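Sample A.
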Amino acid sequence: MLTVMTGDTHVVQDGRADAPAVLLIQNAVTPPALWDPVIPALAEAYRVIRVDLLGRVSPGAGPAGAAGYDVPAQARRAGAVLDELGVDRVTAIGHSSGGMVATALAEQRPGTVAAVALINTGPSLAAKIPDSLATRLLNAPLAGRLLWRLKTAETIRRAAGTAFTRPVSIPSALIEHTEAMPYRSFALTMRGYRDYLSQRSMPDRLGGLGLPVLVLFGAEDRRWRSASAGVYRDVPGARVEMLPGVGHTPMMEDPLTTASLLLDFVASGSPA
């Protein structure tokens, strides 16, 4: 494993430097450690690159203005990382809202992104399961700032619980990541995801790219309606896989199946 900083972006690499590249993008309010359970399998065959686009931003640092947190801006930072690493061809894999960043990267760099895989990425705002009262308050500026200052490891752990249906051990990296993140980064990132989905649906965006698409969805997701994954079948050439008994975070809840499906998908579109 090689950990580096590229500008304000935290980058973790595994696998062989000369292997085909895979880019893993998680929700910006979660750490790259959420991918840990699938890394050993992926790194056997691929150069695996993980980016922490916003999580290392400290108060008063990082992108200036609200525009720095929107989905296209995050995708441009991911593209800059690829340039810095000398990667000119990659399969982009995104989890939840990270799937939006992966898609935006493909929109910006059609010659670089060979294929896109989405893991529990809602296709539209209509697919979102209504937030809890606490989450709605977090997205309200005044109440949100107060609640953010009052957060503790225990409240973070409880909030993260909706990301899992199967019993998992919540990584300490997730707690530390959330504790360190400024409220402004959280709020503007969430707004950026909502804006991206409100402009065009994910199937509409992917349908115009002409790329291989894999959609993995936990059937027991408590953040996005899993039945909504069916609309991705309207994307030409898209493959949709439902994971029974799995919630919002398949790479932690069922890493063996998730890694196997990703390996099969990447192999089908990667050069030998």
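Sample B.
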Amino acid sequence: MNWKRWSTAMSLGIVLMGSVFAGAAMAADAVLYEVTEAVASKGAGSQGTGFRSSTATLSGVVRTGTAGCSEAIATPALQGCWVIVRAVGRANDDTGVGPIVGSFEVVVQDRNQTDSPEIVVLRGHVGGSIDLSPAFQQNRPVGSTSGSFTLIGVPGTVMSGQVVRGDFTGVFRLPYMNNGHASYLSDDNNPVLVQNAEYVLGYPAVKLEVTFR
């Protein structure tokens, strides 16, 4: 597998169920999944000859009581708040390290209780760096990211006038095949099966586990 074609952005999609988040929440403040990714390459042809940048969208849940998710806007069934991150990353071809920048939104449910939350109550930006050197150089399907974020409450919503700032670190888990099964690599180097709720339109999604500081 060519790991350089996988997510290289904070690239922070309705794939997350409350049960999946609850299982990972003990070790993370937020669990996000990559919904879309568009990679720009340096060369000609469908595969290109090198990596230039990646634009991606991630969506998932921030745990109640952590950054940007107060009790006032949390969804009980999710045990947190739904977030959307749109980001661009530029990891170096050789090192796998580079900058990221993007936008960040916290959304709540509207009158339609069936689909995903979609009314924006907080919006802002994220910036930092990404390190995919384990994937680029060692063929290990993991990476990391760190940076800072700022969120501002949308006028006319329950979060109007609110400002939330903080720092974050994160671990990317890139899906890979292990004995014929789509899996993530755990911190202790053991495979963990990708759950049904962790697929996007039939594809296992890149997972990002975030801790706020």
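B remarks: The radius of gyration is 17 Å. The chain has a mean pLDDT of 85.
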